[in-house]
Amino acid sequence: MHRPGSNPDAMSPDDILCDFCGAPWDGESLMVEGHRGSCICEPCLRAAAAALIAAGAPEDPASRGDCTLCLRTDRSPVWRSPNGSSEAAETSAAPAPATGAAACRGCIRRSVRLLDASGSDRDAE
Ligand SMILES: [Zn+2]
Ligand SMILES: [Zn+2]
Question: What is the pTM of this model?
């Protein structure tokens, strides 16, 4: 997401916040942007990929929902950030991350390809 109150004509990296953990972008690691300014940072992306793809996502109906990144309601499981609003509670000055942000498998697959293409060191599977 974009930091509330940020100037869209003069965005700095730390105006870009991960929708899943609320962390600001460091300007160097990969940050994948979805629809409506939604973003997922590299650590969240890796965690999502591990949960949804590498582990073989369980078909749990409870884990389905609207994808924050593509805005579709996917029929496959979605990944939700496990650390919710805990960070926001510590730094009350920071905007609360959008709780309930979810990423579908399709978005994670696409994003992981970007991760690979970006030349990050990542073990081949
Ligand atoms: Zn994140
Ligand atoms: Zn999606």
Answer: 0.73
**What is the per-residue DSSP string for 91-106?**
-TTSPPP-TT-EEEHH
Q: Which-ligand-closest: CA of 48?
A: 1
Instruction: Kindly give the distance from the C-alpha atom of residue 100 to the centroid of ligand 2, in angstroms, as a whole number.
Output: 14
52-92 pLDDT per residue, tens = 876 665 565 555 678 999 998 867 778 888 765 444 444 44
Q: Which residues pair with 2 in a beta bridge?
A: 16
Contact call for residues 121 and 42 (beta carbons, < 8 A):
no
As a whole number of angstroms, the distance between CA 96 and CA 76 comes to 27
Question: CB neighbours (10 Å) of residue 11?
Answer: 13
User: Measured between alpha carbons, how far is 18 from 2 in angstroms, rounded to an integer?
Assistant: 9
Q: What angle do CA 15, 86, 93 make, to 5 degrees?
A: 45
The protein residues having their C-beta less than 5 angstroms from ligand 2 (an ion) are 67, 69-70, 104, 107
- With CA atoms as reference, report the closest residue to 85 among 76, 94, 72: 94
